[in-house]
Sequence to fold (317 residues):
Amino acid sequence: MAATRQTVAQTLEEVITWRPVLAPVLRSFEPLLTAQEELVGELAENLKKQGVKLPQSQAERMEQGVSLLADATFAGFAPAVRTSAEKLLPLLCRMDAVVPYKAAFTDFFLKSDKTEAQKIEELVAAVVSGNKKEIEGLAEKIGVDPLVLHFAAGFVVAPVLHALTVLVASAGDEAPWEVGDVWRQGYCPVCGALPTMGWMDKPSIDEKNAFLAGGGGKKHLHCGTCGADWKFRRGACPACGEEGSGVMELLRESGKAAHGERLDWCTKCKSYCPGVDLREREFVPNLDALALGMMHLDMVAARRKLKPVKPSFWNMF
Ligand SMILES: [Zn+2]
Ligand SMILES: [Zn+2]
Fold:
């Protein structure tokens, strides 16, 4: 039986009962994360109708570590990005860092002429590739601070990429990057971003004969940029690829129950990825919301001079 998946709101609610001190910051981001969550289904429908989908996966390219969206042009993505911006911009523009650029962002994202559409597609490509130079170039054209553009664009583009991933994942039993274990990289098989979270799966039950089909504890990584999940070797670092006994260490809160939450950090490159062992939890959290809810561990990591494998919006500024 599939474990119950929590929504953004349910995930944050649970975190707040455990760590009430985080309530103000979690509550301030909840409307945005919830709006993103709601957009994914709507955007998946739109993309499907328009015939926009992920490039076909090729086992050989995947084995070589080429993500599905590497070299994608994102032509035809502008309408979906606009739909996302319509819903998210009003929420983003409540934030102090974004307020000065409200007019510039509204102009850029919501105008529907051809040149803007092309720039929007360039922005999607820049977000996916993480190319700072391209983002800086676009920021100058739009007249906004590059860091704020990166922050806002990350929010607006993510639901569109999530929708693409959902379309692929819902098309078959197994995502193409899970078939035959062709994907062995620490970065995302869909968009190429580094993971924002790791998770260990729960034991699975074979419903037909009620026997335990697997003991669980298999390691997966989760991409906060496009929502993809993929299997990864436990003893390997997703950032530098180093592998072996003693490479990865665990950091978890002592004393009170940790609810399966921990940081996996690499003794070689000193980067860390937050993670959750689902065997220690009743429900399956929304991983993007949980990543935010684990910011107390980000602070512990920062004190130890560790750096996140993938910086998230709450440690961008
Ligand atoms: Zn991704
Ligand atoms: Zn490493």
